[in-house]
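RETRY 2/3 - previous attempt timed out on the joint model. Re-submitting the same 263-residue input unchanged.
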Amino acid sequence: MRCEEVFSPKKYEIPENFAFYSNIAKALFDYLQEVYPGLKAKKVLELGSGTGVATREILKRFPSSKVVCVDISCEMLRTAKKTLPDCLYVRADAGDLSFLREKFDLVIGNFCCHWFMGEGFLKELFNVLKDEGICAFSIPIDSCKSSFLRKVLKKIFVFLKKEGYASVYRTYSLKKTVELFDGMKKSWKIYEVKECYSAKKWLEVLKSRGSWSFMFAGMEDVAEDFWQKLIKSEDSLDYTWSVVLLLLQKTGKKVKCKVCKSL
Ligand SMILES: C[S@@+](CC[C@H](N)C(=O)[O-])C[C@H]1O[C@@H](n2cnc3c(N)ncnc32)[C@H](O)[C@@H]1O
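RETRY 2/3 succeeded.
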């Protein structure tokens, strides 16, 4: 499945997702304002802006800023535009920002950079940031909190691996994620979000967020068959997401571009 087809506003716009993404966006902006109190941003670029959950937070915190939203999915952008008509919406791959002719004070990415922070992404950021410009990203990292759901997902991975499947996407450890942005001034903190749903709800939630495709791209149906075999109970299952709230500032130093080959 192509990345732009993974997200559909119809599936994405469920209360669980609004609660999840707005909670993380709020934590990200609180952290940004804690580290950079009084920060002013005339021009803000939001990457992977989706249906505008984090965009609302940008407009609240920086009400007089000009906001440009970039997303690979037209459908997601169209939905955002209906409720937030004053932003500028551009359908593009955030992994290649060479089409942008202006520079920004602030670049935001709420729970989306893991889709596109591949080779050259750091350079792209440098090119679109003003001097001293700041990026604020929330990025999922490898979680070490044990849970039944985590064990099930791991078992599916192992099963698919035995079948010869190698996942295209993956999350990284905190260390590796932070290292990808060497050359920028960095501050970060870990934010944990615990969710608890029935197995049926989890499947709906993981699919609606693109997480199912992120983990099992091209093998979603096989993974689902295996999931159904592994999960019998209707009990609530919890899962704790580990997210790094990462602030980066362009310092003018030469960029040492780390390449993340497997993305
Ligand atoms: C999990 S959603 C997060 C959306 C939004 N940031 C929020 O907080 O609700 C990830 C978003 O990233 C977008 N996306 C995925 N790959 C992308 C890419 N290569 N370039 C731009 N957007 C991308 C998806 O279309 C989706 O809207």
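Residues 257-263 have pLDDT under 50 and may be disordered. Closing ticket.
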